[in-house]
Amino acid sequence: MKRFRKMMWICLIVCLFSAQLVYASTSYTSAKTWSLTAGSGFSTMTTSGNRLSSTKTTDQPDWRVYTVAKTMVTSPKAKLVNSEGDPRSDTLTTAGTGNSVSSTANTGVKGYYEYLSVKPSALQVGTDTIKLKFKNY
Question: In the CATH scheme, what is the code of domain 28-136?
Answer without folding.
Answer: 2.60.120
